[in-house]
Design brief:
Structural class: alpha/beta
CATH architecture: 2-Layer Sandwich
CATH superfamily: STAS domain
Distance between the termini: 24 Å
Number of domains: 1
Shape: globular
Strand order of the largest sheet: 1-2-3-4
Order of helices and strands: EEHEHEHH
Strand content: 35-45%
CATH topology: Transcription Regulator spoIIAA
Largest sheet: 4 strands, mixed
Length: about 100
């Protein structure tokens, strides 16, 4: 289960705090929300991963597909950072 909480939103950015596991049907829900803010509302999406305990391959692949300068990840645990290492290391907009 994944809980997504909108922490802040202004004219240019929305920050979403994620708590739980990015797995299964939660992946498509997260993708829809990210694309809504990024594409329809033209905002930078900051994903706060401080509460994420696991992300499966489906979640990693989804993030690979939607990543750009307007989708950022912050506050990863060491475990999540290792699962997302290729994304974080190869994309300057993603925070370590």
């Amino acid at each position: 289960m994944l809980r997504i909480t909108e922490i802040t939103e202004d004219d240019k950015t929305v920050t979403l705090r994620l708590d739980g596991k990015v797995v299964g049907t939660c992946v498509s829900d997260l993708k829809k929300l990210c694309l809504h803010y990024r594409d329809e509302r033209n905002k930078t999406v900051v994903l706060d991963f401080s509460g994420v305990t696991f992300i499966d391959n489906k979640g990693v692949r989804m993030l690979e597909k939607i990543k750009d300068e307007r989708v950022q990840i912050i506050n990863c645990s060491l475990f999540i950072r290792s699962l997302l290492s290729n994304l974080i290391n190869n994309h300057k907009g993603w925070k370590k």
